[in-house]
Amino acid sequence: MISRLFPSNEHTVERVVRVVLGLGLLSLVFVGPQSWFGLIGLVPLLTGAIGSCPIYTLLGFST
C-alpha cells in the first residue's frame, strides 16, 4: 500500500542531492540569517529520504 502512495521514482544521486540541499536550507533556521525561510528545506529533505517525489508521481516521471 505504501509503495502505491510513494513509488520509488528518484535516482540515488538525486536523493543525495535533495538531502544535502534540504539540510543546507534547514541550517538557515539555526545559523546565518536565522530565517524561517529555511524550513522550505524540509521538502527536499523528506522527498530525498523517502525516495519519492509527489510531483514526479503526478506527472508520471521517474529518474
Topology:
Layout: H1 2-5, H2 12-27, H3 42-50, H4 54-59
Query: How much of the polypeptide forms β-strand, as a percent range?
Result: under 5%
The domain tally reads 1
For the sheet with most strands, the description reads: none
The total strand number stands at: 0
What is the overall pLDDT average?
92
Summarize the structure in words.
With 63 residues, the protein is mainly alpha-helical. The protein has one domain (2-59). Helix content is 56%, strand content 0%. The protein contains 4 helices and no strands. Helix 2 (12-27) packs antiparallel against helix 3. The two termini are 22 Å apart. The mean pLDDT is 92.
What are the salient characteristics of this protein?
4 helices; 63 residues; elongated; 56% helix; mainly alpha
Q: What's this, in brief?
A:
The chain has helices at residues 2-5, 12-27, 42-50, 54-59.
